[in-house]
Design a protein that fits this description.
The chain has 137 residues and is of the alpha+beta class. It contains four helices and four strands, in the order E-H-E-H-E-E-H-H.
Length: 137
């Protein structure tokens, strides 16, 4: 794992989930400043990072963002990500005013059904040569 990642938010995602991989590609295309770094939740890198935050054995159903020393999960993680992207998706950050007890059940419903609706890979995705430096594992 490269040193000095403190100024880069890190997105941890289910590496075999097609929806999650599509989300990562979506973020990469809209992250003009190449701010975000990525690691699959199945990786040793994610395990190390999560242990540092006392968050071990996370459910694979949650996107996790490590940002400014904080750990965010589920819909809150998504909203922290979109606020740093370019394009109309950035407006989605306004949903933050909706309480998590309303946002997260919808997030969990999609997460529970993501393999059925979008499928899954047999192994984690391999980044392209252009994006390889942004992946920590």
């Amino acid at each position: 794992m490269p040193p000095n990642l403190s100024h880069h938010p890190i997105i941890l995602f289910d590496g075999v989930c097609n929806l999650c991989n599509q989300w990562v590609q979506f973020v990469i295309k809209r992250d003009r400043r190449a701010l975000f770094r990525f690691a699959s939740l199945q990786s040793d890198t994610a395990g190390i990072l999560l242990r540092k935050h006392n968050y071990e054995n996370p459910p694979l159903q949650s996107v996790i963002v490590l940002m400014n020393g904080n750990l965010y999960t589920e819909s809150t993680a998504i909203l922290h990500i979109v606020r740093h992207l370019r394009g109309p998706i950035k407006l989605m950050a306004c949903v933050q005013v909706v309480p998590t007890f309303i946002r997260n059940p919808l997030y969990r419903f999609i997460a529970r059904n993501r393999y059925k609706w979008f499928g899954r890979q047999t192994s984690c995705m391999l980044p392209t040569p252009e994006t390889k430096m942004r992946f920590l594992d």
